[in-house]
Design a protein that fits this description.
29% of the residues lie in helices and 14% in strands. The strands form 2 sheets. It has a 3-stranded antiparallel β-sheet with strand order 1-2-4. The relative contact order is 0.16. The chain is an alpha+beta fold. It has one domain: QueA-like (3-Layer(aba) Sandwich), CATH 3.40.1780.10.
Length: 183
């Protein structure tokens, strides 16, 4: 699968967060100084519809972070820039490659385990993601960025306004509180 911001295609499920971006939007953002860097990941399932199976998701996901991407992330972090992961699988890859100072290391890796409320993101400051339902592994990941009340409010607004969820649906941007506002 491939989107307008994707690197090499390698996914079991479409990396749907990237569907939200059109070429002209990316061009405007680049003119405004927004940088983009790509990585390759094997996007996995977030939901099967079976609660017993869903409790075992996500499965391990392979990824590759090129040297130029690691350098771009590390440069942005060291200069006070913000990192926005486009998709939950990109977020998982960045966190799995975290080097302890907010940056990432280049190379191949495997993102393992479930990310949730107890996870303190060390690389990404925000995530663009499709709309996910409570109980899905990707929804649980969003709990690393926002408190339950915020996510419940988001879910209610999504339902009330008829937004589409999951793959080929609508997208949301969720930011974690800045480090300064957490102290």
């Amino acid at each position: 699968m491939w989107t307008s911001i994707a690197a090499d295609p390698a996914a079991f499920e479409p990396p749907s967060a990237g569907f939200a971006f059109e070429w002209r939007t990316l061009k405007v953002w680049r003119r405004r100084g927004v940088g983009f860097a790509t990585l390759t990941h094997a996007a996995g399932l977030s939901s099967t519809g079976c609660p017993a199976l869903d409790s075992r998701l996500p499965l391990d996901e392979l990824f590759h972070i090129p040297e130029r991407t690691a350098a771009a992330v590390n440069r942005a972090k060291s200069s006070g820039g913000r990192i926005v992961a486009v998709g939950t699988t990109v977020f998982r890859a960045l966190e799995a490659a975290a080097n302890g100072d907010g940056g990432v290391r280049a190379g191949d890796g495997v993102a393992r385990g479930r990310i949730g409320r107890e996870t303190q993101p060390s690389v990404a400051d925000a995530v663009v993601t499709g709309v996910h339902q409570p109980g899905e592994s990707h929804y649980e990941l969003l709990r690393a960025f926002a408190p339950d009340a915020t996510l419940e409010s988001m879910s209610a607004a999504v339902t009330a306004h008829g937004y589409r969820d999951h793959e080929f649906g609508d997208s949301v941007l969720i930011e974690r509180p800045s480090r300064a506002s957490r102290h």
